Amino acid sequence: MSKPSQLPLGMLAFCERCGAACKTAKTDPSARLLRTSETPKGYCLECAVTEFLQTTPPICYLFGKGDAVDPREAAYARKTGMDADLDGQKRGASVLLLPQVRVQMAAMFRAGRAQADERDINWCKVIEMWDLPLVTGKGRKGAKP
To answer: What does the alpha-carbon distance between residue 97 and residue 34 come to, in Å, rounded to a whole number?
Structure first.
């Protein structure tokens, strides 16, 4: 069997979270967010976005995912209103469809030098798959939410 660095790029892979078909691609070492994988392991773009949003304070507070975080961060979220209800309902993934939120997400991905293009994200799929469990284990952020 060949070593991971010798695997051909463009090979078929499946998302470890939702099972979507993906392709491997060359990783940009300067990217800090949403990097592609040269091996057939990992998440599709939408599941990678979901993991980032659900496990990164203070962003996770916007989606009601801040229950198991540092108490100081939770107190800050309460103080600033980041954990507030919206029209009597907890803010959920549907907030991602708001144009002003999408503009901010694009700016955040650019600032984080994301390898993926935010225009390629299927936000409806992100919302549809929102409640699937995150894969946990060595090297995965999914253990945090």
So the answer is: 20
